[in-house]
Every structure is written in structure tokens, then in C-alpha cells.
Amino acid sequence: MRRSAVVGTALVLALAGTAVCAPADTAGASATTAARGSTGGERQVTLTRWDSTKQWRRGTMAGTTVSAGRLAFDQPVASATAGSRTYDVARWTSQWVEPGYAFTELIASWSARTPKDSWIEVQVRGRGNGERTSWDVLGRWASGDQHLQRSSVSGQSDDGTSVAVDTWRTGGLAGFQLRVRLARRAGASYGPSLDLATAMTSRLPSSAGATSKPGPARGVVLDVPRYSQMVHRGHYPRWGGGGEAWCSPTSTSMVLGYYDRLPAKKRYRWVPKDHTDPWVDHAARMTFDHAYDGTGNWPFNTAYAAPLAGKAFVTRLRSLREAEQLLAAGIPVVISIAFGSGELDGAPIGSSNGHLLVVVGVRANGNVVVNDPAASERRRVRRTYDRGQLERLWLDASGGLAYVITDPAHPLPDPGRASNW
């Protein structure tokens, strides 16, 4: 299994892929049908999070320290050489986590600061039947792109596990450990830090099942601003070229706009003034996965949003009823779907191998109000989709994949018996 920890300036050590949000001949791995653990039964999803001093200290520190709920670089315990630069490295390793079932997929997400040329690398390993897997890299990430080209590392296929862009796939493991490597230029006084790491494990049935009944968000429609990915068609080919490829950063930006947490103007002043919604161009650049060759890497989107909004992570929801719990708390939800011709009535595009949009409300009859960035212009973004169609397309395509982005004024609701936020 691939374990290289050496990352060079502007160097990508991963397999290139194809990223698509709207109509396409091929779909990126982030948009493929989720791995299924059984042909029927319960949708098993668990989110494990580390976001407090107590939780971080349950793990093992190696050159890291924790203060006020933030894990930070303290002193080097290893080094990495990249090009002409040497990096000091510190580590944090979680305790072993067992969700209580044999999980077949894991997606990690994080909220980090990486000042100047510092960066982080997120790794995972598992255990089952008395054996441990080797460590796999889930992502090398920095908030900027001047020194490190953030990238996934697809492949790494051995000992029954593999990485598909942002998703760790297994044959069914009982437990896992997460490890974060924090890297800074040798001798530097600054370093990366994290205030959140999560790991979502799942084992899913082979089909969506019956449509859920309307729940607590019936009649709720959040005032989420409407942005179109299509008005960016042809923008910045090196970051996906806008249009069909930018559904994810456009959706993420709509949620940030709802919270009034878009980046400061100085952050996107490099975008020409005549570009509509220039913060979307900025988001595309700052979520771009240089190995996957697209902006649809799920945790890269939440990692971009988290420092701006407050908290953000990737999870799976079991149904639209769970999404409604978030909507009722004032939290819009970004979801990942795929559909063929005629499968989604009222959609602005005829089909998609992988697409993200924002769920913003529920009509009195239970149908779902969305902001669909695939619309040709802003005024066409707001749509109402049939509940049964949308839920099936979401659960079948991505297993209920969702970005959950919150600000301090909109904390997560009590999950009750749920274990996925």
C-alpha cells in the first residue's frame, strides 16, 4: 500500500482522475455509487469526531499539543524532504475506534489552519479478524495553493482496502485509527493546527428503500442565496473550467453566503471584476484536488468551508427525515446525487453522473426545495423536486452523502438516536 509521506512544493504524488458535476460521459470517484455492505436492512452510519481538548487527548501525541480544543504543532519528531525544502513533522494518532459493525467505507474530514507553507496529511488504518492494515493516505491538504498542491491519493490497493479519491473502501473492518501528520518548514516558528477531525464510517443496504415521510421541516424554506455554476463556464481551466465542473464549490458557497461567511473581498481580488459571484471562482481554486483534477473532493470542500463558517464535515444521512432535522435547526444541507434521463422532474440538466446541490426546505406536501447550481442563471436556481425521486437518487448514488456546515448561531440539533452528526 502506498505510504509515501514526502510532498514536494507544487508536486502531486497521486493518480490523475476526472471530475464532473453536470452531464458527463464519465464520473469521478466522489460521485460513484456507494459501496454496499448487504442487500437489505439497516443503514449503518457513524460519525466519530475530535473537536475538544478531552477528545484530542484520547489520542497519542507525538510532537503535538492541545490548547482550548485545538491540536497544534509543538515540536518536530520526524522530517520530510521535498525538492529543496525540508519539513519538520509532528503527529497525532487517534485511539482505536469500533463503530459496532463491519464498515465498508470511511470518509475523513477536518478543519485546519495551515499558515504560509505548512500543510497536513490525513491517514487511516483498520483492523479486523486479528489483523491490521497498513496506513493509507486520505489527503494532503493546505488552505492555499502556493506551496502545496492539495491532493488525494487514489489507489493504494492492498490488504483488502483501497482509496477512491476521498473514500476509504474496505471489505468490512471492525475498527480504525486516524492519524494526522502536521508539517512545517524546518525551523519555522509557525505550524499547522486543527480544531476538528471526523471519520464517518458506513455499511449500507443495496437500495434506498421506501420514501421517508415528511418530518419536522415541513413548511420550512431557508433564505439561502442562489448562485449558478453555469455562469462560470470557461473560467480557469486549470481549476476545472467552471460550468459543469463547479457544482460542489458553488453549493458550498451558497451555504457560506447564507451564513454571511463568504471570504473577505481581498481573498478573491485576483478574480476579474466582471466575473459574477467571484467568490465561487475562489472556492473552486481553494477546493481543487490536483490529483483528482476537479473540485468535487468532498472533504476538501468542507475543509474550505469550516474556518469561514465555524464547523463543517462530511457525513451520510439515512433519509430526508434526518436532513429535515438539520433544516429545522436553520442548517441547509449539501447533498450528492446522480440521475439519468427522466429520473428527476424539473431538473435544469437532463442527467448527471454526479452532482451536488443544496437542500433548503420542504413544502407542505413533503416535496423538497433546493438550490440547484446547474441552473443557467441565478433566478432559475431555486427548484422543488419530488421527494421520492430526490431521496432515491441521493441514497442510491452516494449513500446519502452530505456536507454539514454550521456557524455559531446555528448549532447542530440534538441527534437523538442518530450517530451521524
Automatic annotation (TrEMBL):
Source organism, top-level taxon: Bacteria
Domain Peptidase C39-like: 222-374
Signal peptide positions (record): 1-24
UniProt entry keywords in alphabetical sequence: Signal
Protein name (Swiss-Prot/TrEMBL): Peptidase C39-like domain-containing protein
Species assigned in the record: Nocardioides silvaticus
